[in-house]
Amino acid sequence: MIYPWLEDRWQQLIEQVDAGILPHALLITGSAGLGKLSLAKALGIYLQCHQPVDKQACGSCKSCLLHQVGTHPDYKVLTLEEGSRQIKIDAVRQVSDFVLKKSQQGGYKIVIIDPAVAMNENASNALLKSLEEPGESTVIILLGVSSQQVLPTIRSRCQLLQIRDISFEQGEQWLAPQVGGLERAKYLLAVAKGQPTLALELDQSPKLQLREQILAELTQLLEGQTDLVVVAQKWAKAELGEVVGWLLDWYIDLAKWTATGGYTAMADCQVLYRLLALRLNPQKLHQQVDKLTKLKAVITKGASPNKQLLLEGVLADLSH
Questions:
Q1: CA dist 289 to 57, 116, 121, 239, 247, Å?
Q2: In degrees, to the nearest 5, what angle opens at C-alpha 300 toward C-alphas 320 and 87?
Q3: If exposure means fewest CB atoms within 10 Å of the residue's CB, which of 54, 233, 240, 291 is most exposed?
Q4: pTM above 0.85, yes or no
Q5: Rounded CA gap, 81 and 174, in Å?
Q6: pLDDT tens-digit profile of 189-225?
Q7: The CATH number fitting domain 4-162, selected from 3.30.230.10, 2.40.30.60, 3.40.50.300, 3.30.420.40
């Protein structure tokens, strides 16, 4: 899928393909939720299509049919394995072997690495040879938030394609027909921090339901309508990383809300922020943001703390 805000980048790539000047390595960067992976996949499918129509893959040739069932032999997406934070050197070596082999379908070989920042230094160095001496008709596409996240040796061997952030208005126009109206689109986009594809994923998702539950119960706790042990017990049934993530989002927003007169919180957060502001002065708020940031990092690394006790500790900081 080519999202409306990516049309100019898509046309740029197609013009390079038509002119025979598409580079063998691309580094596509931009904020999360803008469709970088969709753009990379669309380019790979287009390059491997046997009979493109109107600057799009035809969807019916043998290559397109192989893509539809996920079995194209000349197409490889390298990403994080479940529970891992790094793309390891062995996986990159497999990519190196892949690009040296002859195309089984007689066309392009495509490699997509997402996110490129997940490659450690050894893995990045292992990729260099493939970037310097790619196989015939090979395109390697790396994805990331910023080009500065990858090693200079990697960056210098890729053509940079930057995806610009879009306005909330653009996101709302695209999202509204898919979620039942403009008001719902505005709400979802605000929760997703302006990331339209994430906003669509959140619609009717358990993550959004969890956010609304945490918001309601935290507000009740601060109003003295419930007990922190009861709240912690409920939250401990959810994914700890998601609970901490929502709390961290609100604390960071609260810092903006208290520091700037022009910042307007989401309507459903304003009562919560007023209650939190009574308990957290700027210094304490900074400490809480730092604490939750470190906690989120620990959870991401795969640690399994006692959720009940940990959440009681987080909530206890608000009881003073």
A1: 46, 27, 30, 19, 9
A2: 160
A3: 54
A4: no
A5: 32
A6: 989 988 999 999 999 889 999 999 999 999 999 999 9
A7: 3.40.50.300
